[in-house]
Specification:
4 helices, globular
């Protein structure tokens, strides 16, 4: 049963998150060369300097606005590959209100038991 649920969540994540990442990348004016769903447990997403983004399939269990925040966070790494003040300015430009969403993401992950 657990494997069947994970398979379903992976399919849902691929169907929703990957196209959403492409849409948000275009609206932010950045490119991603590759985008994938991962099995990461400790990270929502990642982005390499070469433009490869990956997002944990577990993210599909989160509300849409928090998924968008995570995607934009990774897209901001296409401009700034660290978490400097400049990175957070880029993120705020991509996703206004990002500081609030960061807090909501942390709250959601601690208050909801997810698969």
């Amino acid at each position: 049963m657990k494997q069947a649920l994970e398979t379903l969540y992976r399919k849902l994540a691929a169907a929703y998150i990957l196209p959403r990442a492409a849409t948000l990348a275009a609206s932010c004016g950045v490119t991603i060369k590759e985008c994938a769903v991962s099995g990461a447990r400790s990270r929502y997403g990642s982005c390499t300097a070469q433009g490869k983004c990956s997002f944990s399939w577990r993210l599909i269990q989160y509300p849409d606005d928090l998924i968008d925040y995570v995607i934009c966070h990774e897209l901001a790494h296409r401009i700034e590959m660290n978490h400097s003040p400049r990175f957070y300015r880029v993120l705020e430009n991509f996703f206004p209100g990002s500081e609030q969403k960061k807090k909501q993401l942390a709250d959601f992950s601690t208050t909801h038991k997810l698969f």
